């Protein structure tokens, strides 16, 4: 089993590595679903960890149907992170009708593969109308891996779909279950889906007393906290994975 941790900062990556994870999906702004990390963060993680690093390419919150100007920014970010030496990129492109944007996906895959790196289509796949056809499309476009919760909010609720696609296409594209995965349900998830890897946030909340002032607040959860990776939760997850 390979465990991938969804990290939102350099410190998150350090905690993930200390907990025993092998790979991170490196983001910023996890509370928005994960956006493109800064180049400074990418450089620090690559320089000071031995983790496999998959960097997110996502310029804004909400869905995955982008303006031409946003796509241009994504390509520029992708090139810069590939030049820095990331092991792969996570991305997703959909059209307004919730089908795969094949032109943009191919362009991104070709760019990533030109550096010999891994192309990962993220959970935009869970927003498509025809899941199986979309997976077939990704295979035809030579995407290496797909992160999915089986079109449910949590992967444990999508195990039937994940198992089906793992059996049908797992030899053609890596299937990475994610969303709500933790030490308490990993074994059941693997048993039900046949997955060989899993994606988890291992989240906990850290305090910052400057978040809320007298009349001004930057809170997005409770008044004084922000989300982080828990080294302890990573270790528990990794320990379970070693038994599978």
Instruction: Give the termini separation.
Output: 7 Å
What fraction, in percent, of the residue positions are helical? 25-40%
If helices are DSSP runs of H or I spanning 4 or more residues, what is the number of helices? Answer: 8
Summed over residues and divided by their number, the pLDDT gives a mean of 98
Strand content: 15-25%
**How would a textbook summarize the main sheet?**
8 strands, parallel
What would you call the structural class? alpha/beta
Strand order across the largest sheet: 7-6-5-4-3-2-1-8
Q: How would the global form be characterised?
A: globular
By DSSP, the count of extended strands is 10
Radius of gyration: 17 Å
pLDDT < 50 stretches? none
Task: Give the H and E element order.
Answer: EHEHEHEHEHEHEHEEEH
Secondary structure elements and pairings:
Layout: E1 2-7, H1 10-18, E2 23-26, H2 39-48, E3 52-56, H3 68-84, E4 88-91, H4 102-114, E5 118-121, H5 131-140, E6 145-148, H6 159-169, E7 174-177, H7 186-193, E8 197-200, E9 203-207, E10 225-229, H8 231-241
Tell me what you see in this structure.
The protein is α/β, with parallel strands linked by helices and 244 residues long. The N and C termini lie close together (7 Å). The strands form two sheets. The protein has an eight-stranded parallel β-sheet. Strand 1, helix 1 and strand 2 form a beta-alpha-beta unit. Helix 3 runs parallel beside helix 4. The chain has eight helices and ten strands.
